Amino acid sequence: MENDQTHNGWTNYETWRVNLEIFDGRYSDIDGEKVTAESCKDYAEEVVSESGEGLALDYARAFMANVNWHEIADHLNEE
User: Fold this and answer.
1) Exposed, middle or buried by CB within 10 Å (0-12, 13-18, 19+), for 34?
2) Rounded distance, CA 49 to CA 12, Å?
3) Count of H helices and E strands in the chain?
4) Between helices 37-51 and 69-78, what is the axis angle to 10°?
5) How many CA atoms lie within 13 A of 39 on its CB side?
6) How confident is the model over 38-77, as pLDDT tens digits?
7) Which one, 2, 6, 58, 78, has least CB within 10 Å?
């Protein structure tokens, strides 16, 4: 049995959901330069840190550990 973990064309559910909830239509590089996986991760961390604390923040960070940041950066750079 094949274990396909992709979600709506993305690497996994976590990557799809973070892209949808944090980046879709909201993130762009001010200087017009290409974004990197690291800058995407840093931006998402900032958004999540401002939105929660304690156990909720811990769960959010654990969820984001499975995100394919390179895929999100590539997607943003294509737009």
Assistant:
1) exposed
2) 22
3) 4, 0
4) 110
5) 14
6) 999 999 999 999 988 899 999 999 999 999 999 999 999 9
7) 2
